[in-house]
Amino acid sequence: MSTELKTTIQGAYSRFLEAKSLKPRYGQRLMIAEVAKVLGDIDTDDEGRRSGDPAIVAVEAGTGTGKTVAYSLATIPTAKAAGKRLVIATATVALQEQIVYKDLPDLMRNSGLNFTFALAKGRGRYMCLSKLDVLLQEGHAQTATASLFEEEGFKIEVDEVSQKLFTSMIEKLAGNKWDGDRDSWPTALEDSDWARLTTDHSQCTNRHCPNFGQCAFYKAREGMGKVDVIVTNHDMV
């Protein structure tokens, strides 16, 4: 590990502690040092690819150690110095959101480190615009048919409540007031409604889809290539 990288990590940790009026913790300092040492000593070739054995460090630390701060302070400067993008994977969505909405912003404000980050989610967390279009078209068609064949008991599969929801979604998308992410919709969505709106890898036609340019999932994925840190879950890695 270079002297410059050591200084960067040590300085960031000192600033973080001072800004938060905290005292250094032995376990946290040890974790920072061990993670930084392992990653900072990776040998690479002229193209930046690892040329030696895999670099692995396993750390077990108790509650209150400050693990997220420790590994972030060690890995973010190291990854940036190596020209690499850092991926942080967690087991739960709750921990992902804690890192993205609480821990990393706090670290940026108080450590002096300059970095960008984003939350990577699976395809199932994003609305499929093609499915939304179909549901809206079916809703309008069924409403017209129902009024014509009311006496025959015509059944509407896209009911009035769902129709209003889908219409609201398309309007918010068009007005750039929603990004197609289920978690950013202003109200809780029923699983049954969302299941009709999302897709999976086997159903998605990717670049062959007429809505590919406006696809919420692929727009989010494109943004992943522009950040320093990606936070995701184990299933995505």
TrEMBL record:
Keywords: ATP-binding, Hydrolase, Nucleotide-binding. GO terms for molecular function: ATP binding; hydrolase activity; nucleic acid binding. SUPFAM superfamilies: P-loop containing nucleoside triphosphate hydrolases (SSF52540). InterPro entries: DEAD/DEAH_box_helicase_dom, Helic_SF1/SF2_ATP-bd_DinG/Rad3, P-loop_NTPase. Residues 14-237 form the Helicase ATP-binding domain. This is Helicase ATP-binding domain-containing protein. It comes from Pseudomonas salomonii.
